[in-house]
Amino acid sequence: MSYRVPEPKFFGCTQSMVLAEKIAMAYGVTLGKVKFSRYSDGEFQPSFEESVRGARIFIIGSTNPSSENLMEMLLMLDAAKRASARHITAVLPYFGWARQDRKDKPRVPIAAKMVAKMLETAGATRIITMDLHADQIQGFFEKPVDHLFASTLFLPYLKKLELDNLTIASPDMGGSKRAYAYAKALESDVVICYKQRAKANVISHMELIGDVQGKNVVLVDDMVDTAGTLTKAADLMMERGALSVRAITTHALLSGEAYERIENSQLKELIVTDSIPLRKESDKIEVLSCANLFADVMHRVHNNTSISSKFLM
Question: Where would I find the Ribose-phosphate pyrophosphokinase N-terminal domain in this sequence (predicted)?
């Protein structure tokens, strides 16, 4: 007598509900029902409106600030654990607080490790995420981590553009490894931007290492926050003779004056994923959905098959 593995259950956190619905649809299941009760002071309580006992469940939600997004994920993980779910996978298209992955000066926290421990304590038995700010964050977890790369989405898009004299660029020294990986896949040159910050989100000086004269440049980064680095790099490259400058960034935080900077910059196009919902649309911003990527990996995880083909970088 053969045993059929029961279908997993999918649930979405509030701010990632649109993406969660896309993932569930791509997988071929219906998103589960969760009710959120709120008190007048802002405290909230999620409750699963269906049984999860003995089930494998996927809870989908990016944990970008505000901190409510992280708190919502933690409460849903705890609720699932207390409801006797068998496997609880936290699906974090964007792993927030990841820029605090080390002590870069005295008397500061390592927030990324603290968040990792909180997720595990709350009940996560597995983590699926995409393009972590730093690869070593995987080591902060004691549970299995499936770290996906958005290059599986971006590389086909770039190849379709058929850009002549393509050059891949990193907006800072820390992203050089990512830039070289893209350059290897696309058989292109690489240039690097060297920047100095006056403080967080404020660049005091930027210099270009490499030649962009007559090149179509594609900047590669894991996230775009205020867009200060990307737009400054794009303007610098156009001054140095680049034919065009595009940027691909996995996570579109786009806070502060980011939209205005992008509109007023010489960036031809900004290509992002829907790991974080955009606050508003822009003619310069192209969104590639990561729903099929996550659905495929979640299907492989549920059926205990290899996901190594999704690790292109």
Answer: 9-123
Model confidence at 201, pLDDT cuts 50, 70, 90, reads low
3-state secondary structure of 107: coil
Determine the Cα–Cα distance for residues 47 and 272; give it in Å rounded to an integer.
Answer: 32
**Kind plus residue range of the DSSP H or E element containing 10:** strand 9-12
Q: Give the separation between CA 178 and CA 173, rounded to whole angstroms.
A: 10
Domain range annotation of the chain: 9-148, 151-289
Q: What is the pLDDT of residue 226?
A: 94
Is there a catalytic annotation at residue 215?
no
Residue pair 160/172 in contact by the 8 Å Cβ criterion: no
Six token digits for residue 133: 């700010």
Closest C-alpha to 185, from 248, 107, 235: 248
Distance between CA 295 and CA 185 in Å, rounded?
24
Angstrom distance (rounded) from CA 305 to CA 299: 8
Q: Where are the beta strands (DSSP E) in 139-252?
A: 145-148, 166-170, 189-199, 202-209, 216-224, 244-252
Between CA 134 and CA 145 the distance in angstroms is: 14
Decide whether 9-148 matches 151-289 in CATH topology. Answer: yes
Q: What is the dihedral of CA 16, 18, 23, 27, to 10 degrees?
A: 140
The distance of Cα 248 from the centroid of its chain, to the nearest Å, equals 12
> Any idea which residue has 């980011």 for tokens?
258
May I ask the CATH class of domain 9-148? alpha beta
Which is the catalytic residue, given 81, 105, 117, 195?
Answer: 195
Interval 213-237: pLDDT, tens: 999 999 999 999 999 989 999 999 9
> Which of 203, 288, 213 is closest to 251 using CA atoms?
288
The answer to whether the CB of 97 falls within 8 A of the CB of 117 is no
State whether CATH 3.40.462.20 applies to domain 151-289: no
3-class DSSP assignment, residue 236: helix
